[in-house]
Design brief:
This protein is an all-alpha fold. It has one domain: Orthogonal Bundle (ABC transporter involved in vitamin B12 uptake, BtuC), CATH 1.10.3470. It has a two-stranded antiparallel sheet with strand order 1-2. The longest helix is centred in the N-terminal third of the chain and has 28 residues. The radius of gyration is 19 Å and the shape is globular. 75% of the residues lie in helices and 1% in strands.
């Protein structure tokens, strides 16, 4: 699947604009706890933490979908690895957040290396289907784990600890830790995209034959990006588990993978800031439309179709056009 990219001459300007959009989003997130206090609505923090987790997952998926043209339909598996890393280590009395993230990243790296090495032997719809198959294998593996509730999932006895303290039991601390992780991973992803590695990955997306002709191996670069993306997504799973204080195989179903792709498309493919914005808009629309009608998915589908038809580069693409128009 080919993914269009902005012309090279405009890319530095676009990157600068996208960084500013990202800073505005982060500033809005940072103000959310204050808004929750003013409105006396602590539930906003739980919603905000959930959005932050999905923003990380959508951004991680966009790293391979938007910049590497790898449409993974099993990416939610890494959400599950992150969530179950918390549950499994908690059951053995290991509650440190750093160890939870390390364990989640290690499992995800191993799974992504093996499955990516196989999946990247295919192209197009075959790649989509084989990643879906691997994702479902992981899903049914955790369904079979009766020790952790099987299909019903299992509650967490406690949230992860932070440097030995139970600070994450405070929803505000949990929110700001999630925000800090999002910002840190955004910086990492931005540096990756702007590096030589990122340029080769984009070149591989545009013309893999040409990359091979100049002596570069598309497979190695794509596999590395695939592993990095899976590891980043697992961090989102750790956040989700702590936010919900519950872990279930539903975290890694193919429906969840589809939702992540929708977030990326909605925000703008090949745009890390767009992936974050897409996660924000998608989850807020889900909550707001669900209040209006039980058939909210129909309205959401209409909105997504209109967005794809009239703004192929997503929400951030529309904002960039608006900004250029004003200038």
């Amino acid at each position: 699947m080919s993914v269009s990219a902005p012309p090279t001459a405009r890319r530095p300007v676009l990157m600068s604009a996208r960084i500013w959009f990202a800073l505005l989003i982060f500033a809005g997130f940072a103000a959310l706890p204050l808004i929750a206090v003013v409105t006396d609505d602590p539930f906003l923090l739980l919603i905000g933490t959930r959005i932050l987790a999905y923003a990380i997952a959508a951004m991680a998926l966009d790293l391979i979908l938007g910049y590497g043209a790898m449409v993974s339909f099993g990416h939610a598996a890494y959400l599950g690895f992150g969530a179950y890393a918390v549950a499994i280590l908690n059951s053995y009395g290991v509650t440190d957040l750093t160890l939870h993230i390390t364990f989640a990243v290690a499992i995800s790296a191993l799974f992504a290396t093996i499955t990516g090495a196989i999946s990247l032997r295919t192209r197009g719809v075959y790649f989509i289907m084989i990643t879906l198959a691997f994702g479902q294998m992981a899903y049914f593996f955790f369904v079979s784990l009766s020790a952790y509730g099987g299909d019903d999932g299992t509650p967490l006895a406690t949230r992860s600890t932070l440097f030995g303290s139970a600070a994450l039991e405070d929803d505000r601390v949990m929110f700001y830790v999630a925000l800090a992780l999002l910002i840190a991973l955004f910086i990492v992803a931005t540096r990756i995209v702007g590096s030589r590695f990122g340029r080769v990955l984009i070149g591989t997306r545009e013309n893999p034959v040409r990359m091979e002709a100049i002596g570069l191996s598309p497979f190695r670069y794509q596999l590395t990006a695939f592993v990095i993306s899976g590891c980043m997504t697992s961090v989102a799973g750790v956040i989700l588990a702590n936010q919900a204080e519950f872990v279930s195989p539903a975290f890694m179903s193919w429906h969840r993978s589809g939702e992540l792709i929708v977030m990326v498309v909605l925000g703008g493919i090949g745009n890390l800031t767009g992936a974050i914005g897409g996660a924000v808009v998608a989850l807020l629309l889900e909550d707001w439309l669900a209040v209006l009608t039980e058939h909210w998915r129909l309205l959401f589908g209409v909105f997504l179709i209109l967005m794809v038809l009239y703004s192929p580069h997503g929400i951030t693409g529309a904002l960039e056009r608006f900004t250029r128009g004003r200038k």
